[in-house]
Amino acid sequence: MAAMQRITGVDVARGLAVLGMLTAHVGPGEPGDPLPWSLAQVVDGRSAALFVLLSGISVALISGGSAPVAGVRRVQARAKILVRAFLVLGIGVAVILLGTPIAVILPTYAVLFACATPLLGADPRRLLGGAVAVAALGPVLHVALQDVLGRLPGRGFTDLLVGDFYPAVVWFAYVLVGLAVGRMDLRDRRVRLRLLGAGAALAVVAHLASALLTRALAGDPALVALVTTEPHSSSGLEVVANTGVGLAVLALCLIVADAVPALVAPVAATGALALTAYTGQLVVIALLGESVVWQPQAGTWLAFLVVTVLACWTWRAALGRGPLERLLHGLAARAADVSPDVLPPRDAVPAARD
């Protein structure tokens, strides 16, 4: 089976998502910092949403991109996706055991990744329709199920489904959008411009609608929670706004990556090694202690950024795939190493005896 298509602009967007999540974790946020106090809040939530949206695009690229595979090749694609999801889930659980004060996205990412496998043959319009339905109904289910599921044993499953940060019942919308976008020809200039325009429009409309509704419903906190675009609020309007930002960022990355590939090469390398970069920063946070999260400093944040980008860029140039990416690729390729049985001619099959 052919390897997943690589599009440099998608890697650049994924690199920005990883660096954005890093900024949300250790970025400056205290008064007196030389950088704007709101920097971490700007990327908080949006970067993770972009990361998950890009997972949908990855699913699409693994399964043929704008020309979806069928038959045995689709079975192979499903096998590869499921193995990757299983391994990412294991890595996510291991990272959680480090005990960092970070809401680790990998388990939810893995579950959402796997949930996309039955949809490899779905039409993009149906995928977008599904995303709209999830964005509309998911936040209501999130609120309704939190109290019910919170009483059940198995907190890990509850957090995956309706947790405070990455509830699958809401965040699956990003995967559906990504899968639909991945079925488009992302190398087509017209597609990129449409994504840019649609993304900008969605982001502006959602934020304006949220501002107006939040003011109108100020006396009812429960209703405000359903219309806010605050990070990790998991409201429908936050999903729309984050989707718009994600599509606009993706379009810009695709355009810039083609125009000045050398300029964005370090960030593209970070995106190509996204799993290693994300996991590595959590390991470093565990080694340095919780103070790097609770007492963020601009110098520490800049050191994280520079070391992450340089390490990924150097590794990518010298060794290709990152260590965790190599593990996922190798095991997924083995799982997908299947071919249909060669059946004997029907005339050669002995007739069954009564």
UniProtKB/TrEMBL annotation:
Signal peptide: none
Record keywords: Membrane, Transmembrane, Transmembrane helix
Domain Heparan-alpha-glucosaminide N-acetyltransferase catalytic: 6-206
Statement: the UniProt record of this protein carries the keyword ATP-binding: no
InterPro entries listed in its UniProt record: Bact_Transport_Assoc, HGSNAT_cat
Transmembrane parts of this sequence: 48-69, 127-145, 165-183, 195-219, 239-260, 267-289, 301-319
Protein name, per record: Heparan-alpha-glucosaminide N-acetyltransferase catalytic domain-containing protein
Organism annotation: Cellulomonas pakistanensis
